[in-house]
């Protein structure tokens, strides 16, 4: 935000005049008058109102009155909140509802106080603590987005997605450096720019908050990415989750139940799967597990191949893959090579997917496992939206050049069902024992 010079108050003595006037406020005894907001932060413009708290004994917490004060050359909006002084002090120990769960350090200025209360309310800054990490509420709100999507309730999707985006920073705060905010705008800017966050976090937050245009389906995908991308980041802080929401939720975060539940929400809201264009031994990635990357000059899906020109195995899409590597590949008719994925630590086989030349190039140069979806005709980066990342440790080509062995550091579940590996169903073997 561009720097803006602080606009002065309408005239010298303006605050003193109002303090004297407000000391006669209502029927309850006034014990203090506090300036808050943009004028206290030295950030006011000529359009800013003047926020005053009148602290009284035994009055309702937030009785409000508004004034339009006629001042030289213009009118000034004076916003006055009558607050019970004991409740006002007590609320300083509670999180601010506008701060995205972040702690608050907001400048203030005491204009007047009686002798008894002065030492308790003469505070140069008003400090409020951070909110608890609202993981349970975040998951529940994703369920509301999913429910609205199933019902075709577009307004419900937008409202629930906005609630989800406001909750997400309170959870991610666990993995981020501590920072205090002084205003609602500062809180929003801080929440949007948390350094430890899922891929695409800022854009997804803006979309869900309604600060970027987007269709209901885009909001749903963004909400899924925010939740699934946050879970692996906060897993090391399960003890703090236990303190805020109980041990079961913390254990579910650690043992994978929470990931499985989110995957369940995702599958339930996706409805019937799209018809597959071809049979495949590899389950198609579900929503929340891929990201679409534009493919230059991609072939039209289902376009007939002339009988006189049989397909020649080779790269179907432009690629920057090293020609020496490309020359060793033996591809299928549609230009693909099978990729067997295993865990770096345990050696466990996690999944099988497909790569073309460009997917292999991106995998080798980015360190992130990138595949080609045969059913959807698009690239997808494992974990880019689900948070179940695959960090590539090595790639090996088999002796015939028609398969790749990709060794990865797996974060979360490799299978779209929520299982650690796609190979979790054993088949009975009834053959004779080996000699």
From TrEMBL:
Zn(2+) binds at residues 399, 415, 422. Gene3D superfamilies: Beta Polymerase, domain 2, Nucleotidyltransferases domain 2, Phosphoribosyl-AMP cyclohydrolase. Residues 351-424 form the Phosphoribosyl-AMP cyclohydrolase domain. Residues 266-321 are annotated as: Disordered. Residues 307-316 have a biased composition (Pro residues). One of its GO terms (cellular component) is cytoplasm. Residues 136-234 form the Nucleotidyltransferase substrate binding domain. InterPro entries: Ant(4')-IIb_substrate-bd, NT_sf, PRA-CH, PRib_AMP_CycHydrolase_dom, PRib_AMP_CycHydrolase_sf. This is Phosphoribosyl-AMP cyclohydrolase. It comes from Micromonospora avicenniae. The gene is hisI.
């Amino acid at each position: 935000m561009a720097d803006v010079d602080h606009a002065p108050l309408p005239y010298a003595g303006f605050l003193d005049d109002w303090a004297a006037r407000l000391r006669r406020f209502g029927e309850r005894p006034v014990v203090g008058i506090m300036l808050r907001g943009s004028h206290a932060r030295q950030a006011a413009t000529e359009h800013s109102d003047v926020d005053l708290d009148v602290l009284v004994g035994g009055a309702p917490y937030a009785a409000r009155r508004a004034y339009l004060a006629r001042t030289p050359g213009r009118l000034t909006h004076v916003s006055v909140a009558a607050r019970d002084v004991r409740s006002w002090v007590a609320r300083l120990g509670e999180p601010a509802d506008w701060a995205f769960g972040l702690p608050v350090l907001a400048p203030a200025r005491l204009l007047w106080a009686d002798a008894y209360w002065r030492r308790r309310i003469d505070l140069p800054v008003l400090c409020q603590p951070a909110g608890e990490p609202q993981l349970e509420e975040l998951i529940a709100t994703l369920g509301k987005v999913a429910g609205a999507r199933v019902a075709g309730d577009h307004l419900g999707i937008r409202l629930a997605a906005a609630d989800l985006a406001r909750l997400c920073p309170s959870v991610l705060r666990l993995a981020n450096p501590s920072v205090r905010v002084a205003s609602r705008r500062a809180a929003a800017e801080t929440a949007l720019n948390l350094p430890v966050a899922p891929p695409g976090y800022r854009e997804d937050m803006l979309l869900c908050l309604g600060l970027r245009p987007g269709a209901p389906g885009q909001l749903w995908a963004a909400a899924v990415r925010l939740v699934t991308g946050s879970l692996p980041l906060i897993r090391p802080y399960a003890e703090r989750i236990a303190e805020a929401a109980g041990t079961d939720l913390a254990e579910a975060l650690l043992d994978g139940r929470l990931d499985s539940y989110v995957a369940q929400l995702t599958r339930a809201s996706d409805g019937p799967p799209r018809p597959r264009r071809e049979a495949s031994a590899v389950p198609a990635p579900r929503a929340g597990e891929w990201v679409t990357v534009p493919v230059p000059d991609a072939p039209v899906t289902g376009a007939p191949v002339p009988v006189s020109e049989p397909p020649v195995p080779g790269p179907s899409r432009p690629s920057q893959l090293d020609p020496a590597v490309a020359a060793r590949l033996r591809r299928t008719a549609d230009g693909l090579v099978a990729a067997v994925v295993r865990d770096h630590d345990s050696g466990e086989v996690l999944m099988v997917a497909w790569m073309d030349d460009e997917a292999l190039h991106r995998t080798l140069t980015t360190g992130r496992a990138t595949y080609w979806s045969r059913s959807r005709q698009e690239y997808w980066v494992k974990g880019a939206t689900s948070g179940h990342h695959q960090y590539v440790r090595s790639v090996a080509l088999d002796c015939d050049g028609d398969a790749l062995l990709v060794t990865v550091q797996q974060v979360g579940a490799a299978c779209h069902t929520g299982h650690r590996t796609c190979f979790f169903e054993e088949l009975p073997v009834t053959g004779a024992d080996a000699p």
